[in-house]
Structure formats: structure tokens, C-alpha cells
Design brief:
This protein is α+β, with helices and mostly antiparallel strands and 184 residues long. The protein is built from five helices and nine strands, in the order E-E-H-E-H-E-E-H-E-E-E-H-E-H.
């Protein structure tokens, strides 16, 4: 990603439901919550990474555009089969914010990334509340989904106070690694 001109950012694995759901125009879903929280700002574990990138962009509106950022990190999801009833998943998420960015821009970045590691993929229609209808897709490879890609909904941009378009993708690196091992 750095070779494509992106800057790596690091965000906290702890967040809050407002950032994960309301600001992202999502219905509230299942997340791993912390008992006896000290701060309502850090009360749940993130179950996806894009809200952290949106928060970063909202706090850096004074910086030069376009802004190209990515993060590789863990999310925590519920898993009834696991001893702790949770499971960590390694993800990569990328976002571009600027005057002239659109779906085509981020799809070319995704293509460069997946091509560089030799992973074939396809895009399939998808609906997601954080993205503009018709400007979002499921990233598919093998028999399953690797993640999603699209152009962020204006209501989400407004909720974060971001004044320029944002395009983004999020890919499950564990599924990507499993596909790479199977193809060898």
C-alpha cells in the first residue's frame, strides 16, 4: 500500500457504538462489549475497521488533499464456538478522501493490491448502509467474500463532518491468506 502512495495509520481497537453504527448509517449489530467501562468512548471492540479511518479523516481535514490512508489491524467478532466466545480477525482497510475521488479510483487500488499478490477476484453487487447504492460491491474470490469496496454515503460523510468524497475498501486478510495457501 505504501508503494501505491498510501500512508499507514493506526487506530484503537476499542471504540464506541456511535462510531461503529450511528455515524456509519448502520443498524446496531452485535459487538463485543466491555463490562464496567471507564469511558463511554472506549466501551466496545471494533468489528470492522472503516469507522477508524473515517475518524482519522475527520480529524485531519486541515491536511492537504487527496488523503490516501490504510490500516492493517485486528477486529473482534463474536464466535460461539471459541472458548472466549470471541475471535480476532486480521483486516486491511483503505480510504481515499479528496475532491476528485470516485469508485473507479479505489477499485484500481484494490486491483493493484490483489494483483501484486496474485489473487484473482470478482466484484458482485452488494447493499451496505454506509455506501452509496450502486457504488458498493462485495469482493469475491474462490467460494466466498473477501470484503467490500465502495463510495461512502453523503449522510456518513456529514456525520463525521467530512466535506469531500471518500472511497474505501476493507478486506479480510485471513481469508486472503487461506486462498493463497490453497492456490499453491
Amino acid at each position: 500500500m505504501t508503494g501505491l502512495g498510501f500512508q499507514e495509520v493506526l487506530s484503537y481497537i476499542l471504540t464506541n457504538k456511535n462510531n461503529l453504527f450511528r455515524r456509519m448509517n448502520m443498524d446496531e449489530g452485535d459487538v463485543v462489549e466491555i463490562e464496567n467501562v471507564v469511558s463511554s468512548n472506549w466501551c466496545v471492540f471494533r468489528n470492522w475497521m472503516l469507522p477508524g479511518l473515517m475518524e482519522f479523516l475527520s480529524r485531519n481535514k486541515h491536511r492537504e488533499y487527496p488523503q490516501l490512508i490504510f490500516e492493517i489491524g485486528d477486529v473482534v467478532v463474536l464466535d460461539e464456538k471459541a472458548e472466549t466466545k470471541t475471535r480476532d480477525m486480521r483486516m486491511i482497510s483503505a480510504a481515499v478522501c479528496g475532491n476528485n475521488v470516485a469508485y473507479e479510483y479505489i477499485s484500481s487500488v484494490l486491483d493493484a493490491l490483489l494483483s501484486s499478490i496474485g489473487t484473482g477476484y470478482s466484484l458482485a453487487k452488494k447493499k451496505h448502509q454506509s455506501f452509496i447504492p450502486g457504488r458498493v460491491a462485495d469482493i469475491r474470490s474462490g467460494n466466498g467474500s473477501l470484503g467490500m469496496i465502495g463510495e461512502i454515503q453523503p449522510s456518513v460523510l456529514n456525520a463525521w463532518g467530512i466535506e469531500k468524497p471518500v472511497v474505501a475498501f476493507e478486506v479480510n486478510l485471513e481469508r486472503l491468506n487461506a486462498l493463497s495457501r490453497r492456490s499453491k
